[in-house]
Amino acid sequence: MIGSTVPENSDDLSAGLDLTRPSPSRLRDYLLGGSYHFSADRRVAGALEARLPYVREMAWLNRAFLRRAVSLLLGRGVHQFVDVGFGIPAVGNVHEAAQRVNPSCRVVYVERDPVEVAQGELMLSRNARATVVHSDPCDPAAVLGNPGTTQMLDLAEPIGLLMAGSLHLVPDSRRPVEIVARYVEALAPDSYLVLSHATADRRPMDTEVVVETLRKEGITVYPKPYHEVVRFFAGTELVAPGVVTADEWYPEQPVDPAERLAGAQLYVGVGRKR
Amino acid sequence: MTLPLPGDLPVPLRELGTPAERARDRARVARKWAYLVSKTSYIPLPPDEVERQFLELVDRLFAAAGSEPFDPEPAAAVGARLVELNLNGRQTLQCTLDVLGKALAAHRPQDRVITLLGSVAAGYAEAMRASIFEQQENLSRALYRAVRDAERRLRVSEQRFEEVFRSAESGIAVTDSDGDFARANQAFARILGCPEDGLSRLNLFEVLHSDDAPFLRELFADLRAGRTRRPTQRRRMVRKDGEVVEISLTVALLRDQDGQPDQYVALVQDITDFHLLQDRLHHQSLHDALTGLPNRQYFTSKLETVLRRADPETGCTLYHLDLDAFSMVTDGLGREVGDRLLTVAAARLESVLAGERAMVARLGGDEFAILVENSPTTPDVVTMVTRINEELGEPIYVGDRGIAVSASIGVVDRPPRDMAIGELLSAADMTLRRAKSAGPRQWELFDPQQNSADRERFALAVTMPGAWEIGEVDVVYQPLVTLATEQGAERVAGLEAQLRWDHPVLGMLDHDRCVDLAEETGLLLPVGEALIQSAAKQLAWWRQRLDDPLPLHVSLTPYQASDPDLVAAVRRGLADTGLGPESLWLGMPVWALRAKRGEAMDNLEVLADMGTHVVVTDFGGAPGDLACLADLPVHGVRLAPWVAERLQRPPADKDLAVRALRELVALARTRGTTVIAHGLRTREHAENAHRLGVDIGRGDFWYPPGSPDEVAAALGIE
């Protein structure tokens, strides 16, 4: 549920500098125990936690899903990743997870918030195999055509396209399903789409709490029902177990009740491009 | 005999047991620690990797604990490592100290444990500080980049620059080359403690601490000359009110359109708070976070000091308290009410002791301890105990609810000065248990005689492995019977292996007594494995003769059911005897399965996967029992003794308990689960059980427990 806000209609990439307003990515960073956040973000996190005690677990589960998905892709021979997660500096970044296993992995982060781009550049300054491109994640052609991307990745080879917790911040008016379809279309066969998306299917009252609390702070989340989340995977073959809640996707440990509640807020899935 | 005072003699801290036991112990500590802290913060690593890392930390810690000469330094590195693993949650340190405190508590001397925990906390605090500082530095640099970029765009959008400037939490000042402020933001004014409109008259060199001004001059010169240096520094600034503030300072040069040095940007953050953090964390390692009282570690070391130095005439007195029915408060009214209750109780205990030389500590959960260094005017024990319960008995108001509590108290009055601390604590603990067994709001004075009875029980327990070795403790067998409607149609359904101790002085001790004794000291683990081994061998022998694949039933204790080595022990037993896994029915207590850590549950799942039959024992007591059946691959259930006892009575439909029982058994059976009852005393009893749906029973009236020969005779084997 966390990433940076996506304006209804804007190509202005310098938006997002207002630190008095909470940002989804800094909120996520706070929930993960990072330190790139400001009082506005902490205030919103506090308001969420007061009404939904397992909100931290939501961020943890989403992050753990991303880590497990990356590890699955590594096992299937994917060594290049594009993270369209909206918001870079966080705990357990993709390049850390991937390069820990295979140091030759290459990672491109796509980011529109200038402060986060700066933060990402600093963080990655000593890492020759990871970079951040300042681009609108909702414009696949711009992202994949960006010199930063083309220099880092070989687009003729399989790519892991990571969209964990980002698409539910994209309003339907910007046609998120089409955005994903254009990304998938541009990728080589045997590329993978890794996606997690908020849903109100399982515990609608709790979802309502999150949506309402964030809306008051100017962050709009658009949860989707199961059949709409599945549509993101058009053009790919879903990897078993298909689209499931975050706690059900290859759990590594017994799931505790807080994790089960948190998991119910998030559908996740991985698809292989045919 | 006097014991050396702490510090007199170096007493190495030793772990007990064989190397294999120690390794298992450490693995258990590491696993528990990793599990608990992983609930306090997000760890970006796979679980097996996390566990490996924690095992390494535990090893380092135990090595430090046993080092000669003692060197606590590696413990600080352990604390620092936690921060590297992103373990920085509000509860992380507390939880770590709790786990490690308990793991090390078994070892002595206590002051070494305290030093180690202190080092862990200090290392943690230092790493937290460094990590926050580093991240702040990165943040400053990122903000600076953003400001720089915005500055570039200023020509396009003055407004956006204003926005960054105004809203940043860091102080930002733009100065000319002499340090005079061209402008500064609100955050800067806040750090300096002066009104925003007064900033324009200030100079950066003047607001810095006079010791730091020369550095800034050098920095300005370096930047102008194009020399780079570490951009962020820890410096000091002087507030308007004269107070010195620790800051992190980042300075960058702004060039004009022609690339000439023009202005400087200074980014400032107040880091005074980080120094406070360290003090707070050290306090945390010795105090309970909820009540603010000293914790067990601190109390134990204080106890040692006070006991040795107390006036021989008046001595000291140790009170060990436990709030009665505390779990009812938390279960019924919620954890928050429970926490509030503990806080108030802590304050009241302190008020009772006001004016005495005394320490009140929270030992954990609802347990408190009070140590009084007696003076001639100290009230006697009876007065003190009465006051404590009067004080606690005053209702505590939480919201509009008044809750009154009472305490059970164990008292050790004027223990001998040379008593070992461990002995003193366990004396207090045993006395408290005796008080509790008499009901709520009871107290007991330590009674060496009673204590010696408890000790005898322990002595009996510790001689058990030896008795096993020489054959005094042996395995006996009792046939289980399939219930049938017609008398005589019952047939033998299996054999249950049990322990029996033919004690030279005390006579015959039955299975339950043996298990209680062994469980008390944890000795049942080795004995339990031997039990499985020897019973499996025996079974193989009978099967050959009976030509009947009778299964073997073994009941595990909660401790055994959660033993990480259980699966391996069962595997060995089966492999050694060539028995198929389906021949073994293992009983696991239902409440061990519901326990939080899930070790018993893990065991159950693996065992069921292997093909052994798992029977949930003590079934029917609690609401969660049925959930166990639904969630786990369970083959059978064994009714709890009280449930089996109910079967004694003739089934009357009006008897609610019997109706509930029937439902329970019926529900269990819909899942195809075999229902077993022990302790059937008569044929009528067995018939009742059968009518209610029990499949298999055990009763002395059919077959009493006996040696292999006796059982063979009873079963008609030659």
Automatic annotation (TrEMBL), chain B:
GO terms for biological process: regulation of DNA-templated transcription. Residues 314-448 form the GGDEF domain. Residues 157-227 form the PAS domain. InterPro entries: Biofilm_reg_signaling, EAL_dom, EAL_sf, GGDEF_dom, Nucleotide_cyclase, PAC, PAS, PAS-assoc_C. NCBIfam families: GGDEF, sensory_box. PANTHER family: BIOFILM ARCHITECTURE MAINTENANCE PROTEIN MBAA, DIGUANYLATE CYCLASE DGCP. This is Signal transduction protein.
